[in-house]
Write a structure and sequence with these properties.
This protein is mainly α. The protein is built from four helices and two strands. The protein has one domain. The longest helix is centred in the first third of the chain and has 26 residues.
């Protein structure tokens, strides 16, 4: 997980150095930082021996149950992906660059690869069920 932090934040800081204008730089840094949180959250569940992709759902994640879900994940994850695609289109149109699109494809490929790995190796997820509901007792 630490490698993912370094890669995502490095890319965000690198973009800040090469773009003109503070507003653009801040938007790009925010885009990469938000992407880090989304990717990290999904990968945490996918690689966690107590969850895996099988338990990445409303019933098994009580602290995320109140959030809206769509197509197997939080709506917020889809919103972030949509924002990345819009940012990629804007970057291509105004700067004739496909850096954000390339980074989106790399990140999505990484997440998809981890999800497929989790789905293909269910026997790796043999930790006991998480029984501590924390503050989410009804």
């Amino acid at each position: 997980m630490n490698l993912i932090v370094r890669i995502v934040l490095y890319r965000g800081l690198r973009c800040v150095q090469f773009q003109e204008g503070y507003a653009t730089s801040l938007c790009l840094f925010a885009l990469y930082t938000v992407a880090w949180f989304v990717i990290e959250d999904v990968i945490w569940f996918v690689l966690n021996p107590s969850y895996g992709i099988v338990k990445y759902n409303v019933a098994d994640i009580p602290w995320h149950a109140s959030k809206p879900w769509f197509a197997g994940t939080f709506v917020y994850n889809w919103i972030v992906l949509f924002c990345w695609l819009i940012a990629a289109a804007v970057q291509f149109k105004y700067w004739n660059s496909s850096q954000i699109l390339r980074d989106t494809v790399i990140a999505a490929s990484f997440v998809l690869m981890m999800v497929l790995l989790s789905a293909s190796r269910p026997y790796d997820y043999t930790s006991p069920d998480v029984s501590n509901p924390g503050f989410y007792i009804k």
